[in-house]
Amino acid sequence: xxxxxxxxxxxxxxxxxxxxxxxxxxxxxxxxxxxxxxxxxxxxxxxxxxxxxxxxxxxxxxxxxxxxxxxxxxxxxxxxxxxxxxxxxxxxxxxxxxxxxxxxxxxxxxxxxxxxxxxxxxxxxxxxxxxxxxxxxxxxxxxxxxxxxxxxxxxxxxxxxxxxxxxxxxxxxxxxxxxxxxxxxxxxxxxxxxxxxxxxxxxxxxxxxxxxxxxxxxxxxxxxxxxxxxxxxxxxxxxxxxxxxxxxxxxxxxxxxxxxxxxxxxxxxxxxxxxxxxxxxxxxxxxxxxxxxxxxxxxxxxxxxxxxxxxxxxxxxxxxxxxxxxxxxxxxxxxxxxxxxxxxxxxxxxxxxxxxxx
Length: 358
Ligand SMILES: NC(=O)c1ccc[n+]([C@@H]2O[C@H](COP(=O)([O-])OP(=O)(O)OC[C@H]3O[C@@H](n4cnc5c(N)ncnc54)[C@H](O)[C@@H]3O)[C@@H](O)[C@H]2O)c1
What we know:
By secondary structure, the chain is of the alpha/beta class. The protein has 2 domains: 2-167, Rossmann fold (3-Layer(aba) Sandwich), CATH 3.40.50; 170-357, Dehydroquinate synthase-like, alpha domain (Up-down Bundle), CATH 1.20.1090.10. The protein is built from 15 helices and 11 strands. The strands form 3 sheets. Strands 1-2-9-6-5-3-4 form a 7-stranded mixed beta sheet. A two-stranded antiparallel ribbon has the order 7-8. A two-stranded antiparallel sheet has the order 10-11. The N and C termini lie far apart (45 Å). The model has no long low-confidence stretch (mean pLDDT 96). The protein binds nicotinamide-adenine-dinucleotide (NAD). Nicotinamide-adenine-dinucleotide is lined by residues 38, 40-41, 44-45, 66-68, 71, 98-102, 104, 124-125, 127-128, 131-132, 135, 137, 146-147, 164, 167-168, 172, 175, 179, 256.
């Protein structure tokens, strides 16, 4: 069992029945426990949780529809109405059991209901284990704009049990992998080197690597919870990634990790063009991303639409687009203003690459 202390959150990595969850649940005795799941985690993860903790047998289950397209206000409204009907109060506890969609939205729902209820995350996807469940960001999307409504409130506890990965579809591992690569690229070259050797599904099931990623997220987010500086590094790949994901959300959704994978290539391209990242490092990274994520082509109209979406990015200031760039693999720099020309050239580069591969 690994314990990681983050300000305001206790994180445990290990088999759920061996964690302090039963002690935590005992401290809510007399209060209601609400478990938030989506359709998949309801079917595949809930039984293990409930059978491990008899205290949960009488808990209320809130079922969210699957998928990012449901990380929206309309679904939150339905859940808050249900919370009211069931008479849930501030002292009750919300347990979010799911991937990043469930932890982002369940955290948001709990953090604003009656001005805030306690909540715990039990992440079930690799992405949620290494990233979404840690660091206090909760939120939902607004139309094509990702995570536009949200709060920064930390889960009381995060319990990470790799047993949940047994049912995770293979493609979902690559979503988590994108965020893991991000940590290596902006912060830890040795982690990147290790990750770049991953070949099979088993490689993702690594306690040591998941722990390393969680520790990086905790270290950075504890030093800069409200993203005034250093935490911006963790947005590497997301300026392009969020806009690409948002662009596709209404028509033909792609996963967060897929969009971030392409976004990391786009932002590395800008880094290389500015003479920050060496050509060798850029090509090494591009080769890894191309073989991991299907690259997309973007028409001129589509590029314009993506640029418009980028103007809505939360990291912008004064109507300008900012992004994280790389000085080298393992060293990111934040607060770089991007010109429309650079964005266009970078997306054209991605398109040409995608065409050459098809
Ligand atoms: N708050 C943050 O700091 C932060 C950081 C990164 C990403 N995010 C958010 O996280 C979300 C993406 O997370 P995600 O990739 O986990 O998406 P997700 O929650 O939609 O999960 C992906 C799919 O896997 C299924 N699933 C989850 N666990 C499973 C399991 N154990 N077995 C079988 N199926 C399982 C889900 O039902 C879903 O169909 C995005 O909304 C993104 O914006 C938040």
